[in-house]
Amino acid sequence: MSVYPTKTSILKTFSGADRERAKVMAANKVRFSTPKEKGLAESVRVASEEQNFHLVHEFTYFLREAELDDDELEEILKEARKIVHNLTPDFVNVVEALLSLNWRKRSCKTIEAFTEFSIEILVAHNRYLPMGISKFILHWIPNDQDAADWVNGCPSNQIYCELKPIHDVINRIITAVPMAFDVIVDTISSKFPYFKKPAHVTAGYLFNLLWLLDYKPVFEEIILQLVLQKRKRS
């Protein structure tokens, strides 16, 4: 009996899903070449000066689909900071993609690059505040499967370290943009976990609300009312 796999057996192990995934990866590799070559600044320039948003759309897709390493992400964020005042609401989709980047479990330099860009874009363009604040506060809500990281309502050291930059950003935004106060009030109310969520989810959210009070005690009465209101509904 031959010890070598037959052609048929090799084809069988490469499933339809694998083939489709390989096709998508190959297509994306080609599609990502232009955004990588042109960059964000050039894409925005062409859109602003020539009213041609094709490159911006391609760069937005690239941000959403590409698996960026820390160095690539840092370069993109540095470039974005240089043109932050040009990222008007005409470019809401690319800004949304930038603010949605996976940044929490990155190097310290990458986290700093992301948080600095976030602050600058939200300060420069107040219309992005609801979107930006919402994305940060969503990180306050533990996943249903993360009970081990929230023992007795307190985060593990790793989760605490991941949350700290988020609170630092929110603190700086509130200080720099007074109108952010109302946005945060609306957001913490709308994002409050549903009462049927696991206990550690609600406890984690409450932990973050109390953390907010540490640096912005002005929210104390509002948060107390919010918690009492949510408790009555549950």
Automatic annotation (TrEMBL):
Family annotation (Pfam families): RRN3
One term under GO cellular component: nucleus
GO process terms (BP): transcription initiation at RNA polymerase I promoter
InterPro entries assigned to the protein according to its UniProt record, in alphabetical order: RNA_pol_I_trans_ini_fac_RRN3
Any one Gene Ontology molecular-function term assigned to this protein's record: RNA polymerase I general transcription initiation factor activity
Membership in a protein family: Belongs to the RRN3 family.
PANTHER family: RNA POLYMERASE I-SPECIFIC TRANSCRIPTION INITIATION FACTOR RRN3-RELATED (PTHR12790:SF0), TRANSCRIPTION INITIATION FACTOR IA RRN3 (PTHR12790)
Name of the protein described by the UniProt record: Uncharacterized protein, isoform B
Lineage: Eukaryota, Metazoa, Ecdysozoa, Arthropoda, Hexapoda
Gene it is expressed from: Dana\GF22755
